[in-house]
Amino acid sequence: MENVHYYDVVIIGGGPAGSTAATVLAEKGRRVAVLEKERFPRYHVGESLLPYCYFPLQRIGMIDKLKQSAFIKKHSVQFVRCDGRVSAPFYFFQHLDHEASQTWQVSRSKLDQMLIENAEEFGASIFYETAAKQILTHEDTVIGVQAQKHGGERVVFKAPITIDCSGRDGFAMTRNNWRVRDPQLSKIAIWTYYRGAVRDQGIDEGATTVAYVPEKGWFWYIPLADDMVSVGITAEQAYLYRHGKDLQEIFTREISSNIWVEQHLAPAERVERFWVTGDYSYRSRFCAVDGLVLAGDAFAFLDPVFSSGIFLALRSGEMVADAVDSALTDGDLSAGQFSEYSEQLCGGIEAMRKLVYAFYDKSFNFGHLLDKYPDLRGDLTDCLIGNLFRDFDPLFDAIAQFADIPRPLTYGGPQRKNI
Ligand SMILES: Cc1cc2nc3c(=O)[nH]c(=O)nc-3n(C[C@H](O)[C@H](O)[C@H](O)COP(=O)(O)OP(=O)(O)OC[C@H]3O[C@@H](n4cnc5c(N)ncnc54)[C@H](O)[C@@H]3O)c2cc1C
């Protein structure tokens, strides 16, 4: 006999998107199952939050928990040129007069565990070490998933709606061949962790540093708790692999291409392996079919230069939960119910995508933009802190004078036909 569980909502993946969606829906009284293939805590890259993470985190009751955590406080982001010269930091409080202007640099194994346990406290049922394996359909409508437990046992989860929050694995996207890569942003990243590196003091201790290397590649330098720092490089694959694929050799060579990074890491000891990933920047052709909707990285991923991933995961988790709740109330879980969700979400992603394109454009420089258009500092900072769901036309009209700005992608809406 097949083991079948019935819920109002099945969520695939217990990262920031899945846990947020689960919390919001459980709080509204919906019966929610979260299937998470890993045992928590588990490692995950992506440690730097944006100030606007505050608002979805506040909604799901996480702010006090974060305030009590040992995570390093982040007040700013700064940029370092190839020759080691440091820009004036963007201090978020200079633009945002709200406690949200202070955010955090997190260990994802800890943050994600806090988020999923929070979802459980709100009433969601969490199934760890339970991997979704197959989408179940009836008359072209998704009716749940078949999953497999760690020991091999197969379990069926049925619900009128499934939310795919499986991250870059892209459960539905991969099975349906929906992943469309952003060709201009086809970078790779190599990263690792150090202990004992140089860190700035006081309010600057938790600054994210983006340090340029030639050819518009960049290092991230993210100070974490316990004297750890996350350091990674993102650039074109051809540039990084030009003399071979030995990750340690590449990393050592590139560190020496930016004196700021070199000096900051000089006293440090590397305490982790090297990690590498490609597949940068994609969006799913569809955000929903009847009975299924996508959120977080399972829907879209953008180059992480401006640390937008967790914010977009939290925010899309919140937005999709509201859309799902209304759809459940209407008794209509067809794809068309998610049109507004996808329009809003894609609008926010497009703002960040334009900024990412500008960053990689050789003729673009923030300093030149703000020298010519000082009045746009507020708009630019809004983008950098994650206030993405507003009109940025004046900012991008101005940036277009310095850089090629992409047209919005035309896909990512709900599919109204069969899958
Ligand atoms: C190199 C790099 C650097 C980054 N740096 C930053 C940064 O500094 N700041 C930032 O905000 N973002 C950063 N990001 C992005 C950020 O990590 C992601 O955007 C964020 O984790 C997305 O959250 P999510 O919940 O959508 O997916 P995830 O956090 O990936 O969670 C998905 C979950 O689904 C589970 N899962 C997957 N498949 C299945 C399945 N079949 N069944 C059950 N469970 C499943 C996984 O185990 C995982 O726990 C970075 C990303 C990369 C690649």
How would you describe the overall organization of this protein?
By secondary structure, the protein is α/β, with parallel strands linked by helices. It folds into 2 domains: 3-71 and 107-181 and 281-347, FAD/NAD(P)-binding domain, CATH 3.50.50; 187-277, D-Amino Acid Oxidase, Chain A, domain 2, CATH 3.30.9.100. Helices cover 31% and strands 25% of the residues. It is built from 13 helices and 23 strands. It has helices spanning 16-27, 54-59, 63-67, 108-121, 171-176, 237-240, 247-255, 259-265, 309-330, 339-360, 366-372, 377-385, 393-399, and strands at residues 3-6, 9-12, 32-35, 72-74, 76-80, 90-91, 103-105, 125-127, 130-138, 141-149, 154-158, 161-164, 179-181, 187-195, 208-213, 217-223, 228-236, 269-270, 275-277, 282-284, 288-289, 292-294, 300-301. The strands form 5 sheets. Strands 5, 6, 14, 15, 16, 17, 18 and 19 form an 8-stranded mixed beta sheet that branches. A hairpin with a 2-residue loop joins β21 (288-289) and β22. Flavin-adenine dinucleotide is lined by residues 12-18, 35-38, 44-48, 131-132, 165-169, 171, 189, 191, 232, 277, 296-298, 304, 307, 309-311, 313. The site of flavin-adenine dinucleotide has 37 residues, from α1, β9, β14 and α9.
